[in-house]
Design brief:
single chain; 301 residues; alpha/beta; seven-stranded mixed β-sheet; 10 helices; 23% strand
Length: 301
């Protein structure tokens, strides 16, 4: 019981300063931490001294022009970040339980899905719940997975579906991957092309971390070659533009609606597909707004 009381007393002293510990872990600088929290630097220094006295050990040591957290302080700061994330979730749950129609959803998705899928899903949901606010975050598949695991996203639209501990997902639609070549390319008029026929072509690829890039690498490896990379990009529209300029070929989902200017899309044989799906953290409670949007998305499956 003596230890429990001691820990409870220390926890009570640390709890009000969780934002300070998290800010120091992020900035590694007392001045920037003070600016981030909107409080005077002397106040930060006094609070650090009080915490160090309560803990019985220093929290920081000088490191160049900044500071470095001690091992003890880093453990506390890491716990502070987890605690603040849990508290933020609790506050959102409480507020949206009272008013679920005015909640907030942070949705991550791949650049390729911003053309039609994401606008269509948002339009349908907003017709029923116009007060729900969305923050939209785009990036590579790996970036979206990392941010979802870290709690920075509520939901993420990904392809292919992730196999990551702590995440759950559901498939929405299978999307065919096609060969994109310049309109005047010898393969442009073909009814289908085998990936092995592309061994001598130069490729325009999305960067590492994008799902289509991973699929391209896997298809080329299975066909017995490594793609010769002419250019790498972060958006499919840029990749298609480079293909249209005659700078290489690419494997991409169908453009739609319509046809991309200067690019011919040719089916591959056999036809590869990727599954687009929705992912979320499996063990964490959802706010009513997030749960409502997830249900809306999955209802269309």
């Amino acid at each position: 019981m003596i230890h429990a009381v001691t820990y409870d007393s220390l926890s009570a002293q640390v709890a009000p300063h969780l934002p300070l510990l998290a800010a120091l872990r992020k900035t590694r600088n007392v001045t920037r931490a003070a600016e981030l929290l909107g409080i005077p630097q002397p106040t930060v220094s006094r609070r650090l001294a009080a915490l160090a006295n309560a803990l019985g050990a220093p929290l920081t040591v000088p490191d160049g022009r900044g500071i470095r957290l001690t091992r003890a302080a880093d453990l506390l700061a890491e716990a502070a970040e987890r605690g603040l994330a849990a508290l933020d979730t609790g506050v959102r749950l409480a507020r949206e339980e009272v008013s679920p129609e005015s909640g907030h959803v942070v949705l991550g998705f791949l650049h390729l899905l911003g053309r039609s899928l994401v606008p269509s899903l948002l339009r349908g949901h907003r017709a029923r719940y116009p007060g729900v606010r969305f923050t939209l975050v785009q990036g590579s598949r790996q970036e979206m997975i990392d941010r979802l695991v870290a709690g920075e996203l509520d939901l993420a639209l990904l392809a292919p579906l992730p196999s990551v501990p702590g995440l759950a997902s559901a498939g929405l639609v299978d999307e065919e991957i096609l060969l994109s070549v310049p309109a005047g390319h010898p393969l442009a008029g073909r009814r289908s092309v085998r990936v092995s026929e592309l061994a001598d072509e130069e490729f325009v690829l999305l960067e590492q971390g994008y799902g289509v890039r991973t699929l391209t690498d896997e298809l080329c490896t299975a066909a017995g070659f490594t793609p010769r990379i002419a250019f790498e990009g972060q958006e499919s529209d840029t990749v298609r533009g480079l293909v249209a300029a005659g700078l290489g070929v690419a494997l991409l989902p169908r453009f739609g609606p319509g046809s991309p200017a200067g690019v011919a899309e040719v089916p591959l044989s056999p036809r590869p597909y990727r599954t687009i799906g929705l992912a979320w953290r499996a063990e964490e409670p959802m706010t009513p707004a997030v749960n409502g949007f997830r249900d809306h998305v999955l209802a269309g499956v």
